[in-house]
Task: inverse folding
């Protein structure tokens, strides 16, 4: 029996799992594989060099899957600010109906909603989630401190953050705003736990990087499998833009600069954390070439399955976990 949650119903997907936007990973190959496997695949706008390339990538994805997929638009500090408005316009013009947003996106959310899109918005705090509800987003993607990339500045992990979401995320009329759990999610037990904490699905990034179809070098997938939950570093707190990366020689050097720099200028660390350099990691397979984001759920990733195998396994594991919990109550009632 398939899961039926607010997420699966609204998005028209079988498994309540979203593949979150990932810079330099969210190409057509990734999104289509996840959508074909029954989850929601997502293209990452800024991974495309120009807005017109995003248009081509959306059309390519449509040729690779008949299933629903979405597009991510993230607005955070960048070394060379891209034309965000033009990317947003391509998303609308191409008739995309599911958008994942993150960062300072108020104006774009209004445009996506006017165009009839379902908007999933990523937030690392309850305060930001409440603002996002006022912006009119449809789903919150609650991003716990375990996550890869931009963890926010409050460091609240999902055991508390999701539970707070369950208490707080309501519209003015008192109705609950649906949310999914993002950060630390890697298997069916993650999904079962998230459902217990009031979520209607999960978002996974790092777990999807270690799949057959992820369009990144095999060495990086293997590095994720070989890593543990202890193998990440946090950088850029000094500039209120904290992000979690796979720990390597570059993150260690960057952390030293961040700690010891007397100027406090971002430029001192820019070359270490540059996305252009990090992108090469996924192409050349050298995990030490630059920084690349990964979550602490690496400790839960032990293989490189296809997306189909992964999502089937997650469905089975989650169902087993929920059934085991229910069985405990049956046992109790016999006492
Ligand atoms: P980039 O090369 O422009 O910057 C590298 C890192 O430094 C990023 O984390 C960025 O946020 C940060 N940064 C840049 N200028 C900064 C400043 N003045 N102060 C503080 N921090 C600063 O980034 P990129 O890898 O080319 O990515 C482009 C954008 O997409 C960035 O904003 C990045 O954070 C964001 N991103 C998006 C996703 C996604 O899923 N859509 C994932 C990761 C990052």
Result:
């Amino acid at each position: 029996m398939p899961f039926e949650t607010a997420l699966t119903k609204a998005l028209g997907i079988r498994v309540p799992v979203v593949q979150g936007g990932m810079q330099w990973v969210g190409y057509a190959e990734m999104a289509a594989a996840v959508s074909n496997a029954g989850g929601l695949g997502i293209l990452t706008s800024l991974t495309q060099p120009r807005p017109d390339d995003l248009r081509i990538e959306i059309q390519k994805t449509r040729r690779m899957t008949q299933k629903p997929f979405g597009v991510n638009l993230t607005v955070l500090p960048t070394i060379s600010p891209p034309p965000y408005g033009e990317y947003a316009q391509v998303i609308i013009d191409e008739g995309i109906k599911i958008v994942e947003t993150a960062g300072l996106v108020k104006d774009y959310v209004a445009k996506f909603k006017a165009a009839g899109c379902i908007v999933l918005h990523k937030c690392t705090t309850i305060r930001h989630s409440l603002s996002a509800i006022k912006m009119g987003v449809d789903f919150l993607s609650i991003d716990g401190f375990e996550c890869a990339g931009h963890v926010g500045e409050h460091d609240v992990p999902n055991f508390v953050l999701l539970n707070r979401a369950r208490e707080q995320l309501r519209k003015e009329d008192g109705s609950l705003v649906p949310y999914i759990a993002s950060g630390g999610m890697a298997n069916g037990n993650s999904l079962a736990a998230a459902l217990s904490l009031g979520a209607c699905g999960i978002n996974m990034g790092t777990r999807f990087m270690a799949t057959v179809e992820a369009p990144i070098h095999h060495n990086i997938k293997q590095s994720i499998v070989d890593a543990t939950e202890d193998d990440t570093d946090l950088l850029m707190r000094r500039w209120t833009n904290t992000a979690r990366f796979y720990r390597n020689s570059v993150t260690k050097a960057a952390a030293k600069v961040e700690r010891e720099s007397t100027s406090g200028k971002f430029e001192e660390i820019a070359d270490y954390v540059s996305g252009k350099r990090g992108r090469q990691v996924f192409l050349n397979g050298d995990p030490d070439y630059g920084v690349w984001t990964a979550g602490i759920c690496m400790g839960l990733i032990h293989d490189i399955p296809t997306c189909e195998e992964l999502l089937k396994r997650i469905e089975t594991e989650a169902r087993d976990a929920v059934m085991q919990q229910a069985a405990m109550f049956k046992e109790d009632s016999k006492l």
In short: The first helix runs from residue 6 to 11. The first strand starts at residue 17 and ends at 19. The pocket of nicotinamide-adenine-dinucleotide is lined by residues 21-23, 44, 46, 72, 74, 76-79, 149, 236, 239, 241, 243, 266, 273-276, 278, 293 (CB under 6 Å).
